[in-house]
């Protein structure tokens, strides 16, 4: 018996050697995965390489001469989904790249390396994970199936779910199996977003994520959202449905007023899925709650929103102007930022100092000021005003008042002189009129006047 063992060992060492190693790789469906295969023998290239999959034959093969072959089932739209990078061959690396991994790609793969009569075999278990929905884009209110798949499935594994990084608590769901791989749930807004399944077995944990979106009203993006608009500016009240949805009836209505100025404004688009309305110029009465409503087939879809109106209130102080940023609802505002903007003679815009707070006092930096207000998620909106208008008016009023006083005095003086001249002209006219009534008297007056002139001339000559 001992002789047989020694003889068998000698034969094994003298003949072709073979080793087989097992590696496990996981990938999400739709991604790219690399199945490792390395020849540790120095100067392994050129070697004959064969990649195969259990029950599906050859995936990729290269002869030592360099000729390559590809399995027919690995073509997609005229191109191959698998390849081995040639640049790695000289390093003894013959890893297989698989693009656009599918659930059915999961399984056991073998890499066989043949070099100078030696054979090295490696096994790679590829597990493909996927979270899928059926239907893929359900309508709000419909029933949707959520499934966690892993191919091949590890026996005895259990699934936990998270929705938007929050542990999933079944509400209206029906869990189809004990492992939790399949769930049926009513399509509600709070369930939209990222679904992540965690597959647990012993100390191993695998996870896969997919995004669930519902068809219906996509703008506004969520119910009871606050929208911000500057007083006097145009604004679009959103009411947009998913592409491909054409509601048989839809409207935007104001909820807290019997009369809605919205209905005086025009629609934004002629698209059957866009029923948004544009307010040409936002007024204080536009502030309030609105509702976008549409009927799709037999289902009524609604989404509420609130329009918050922002304005800048200016109050004059001695030599300065106080600017106050006021919103009809500031409950979501966490910070106010004032930005000073100036323009040179060429119209080039430059941003100056930045101040914080809902109210600021402007003394020297006249011009354009923009109030930007922020919430927890970032910028909510902005409103712009011209600070120099009020400051300029205060100076113009005083100079205009003094100018007007001088003008009035000058005009009054000229009027008095004009009246005196008219009075004197009237007196002369009356006197001449009286003299013309007595021709003899007029002759006497002229004779006396002529004599006086002669006497004056003679006196000057003497």
From TrEMBL:
GO MF entry, a single one: MHC class II protein binding
UniProt-listed SMART domains: IG, IGc2
Coiled coil regions in record: none
Pfam families in the record: V-set (PF07686)
Domain Ig-like: 30-125, 141-213, 220-302
N-terminal signal peptide: 1-17
SUPFAM superfamilies: Immunoglobulin
Domain of life, per lineage: Eukaryota
One GO BP: interleukin-15-mediated signaling pathway
The keyword Transmembrane is assigned to this record: yes
InterPro entries: Ig-like_dom, Ig-like_dom_sf, Ig-like_fold, Ig_sub, Ig_sub2, Ig_V-set
Keywords: Membrane, Signal, Transmembrane, Transmembrane helix
Keyword Zinc: no
Segments traversing the membrane: 408-426
GO cellular component: external side of plasma membrane; membrane raft
Name the UniProt record assigns to this protein: Lymphocyte activation gene 3 protein-like
Organism name: Cyprinodon variegatus (Sheepshead minnow)
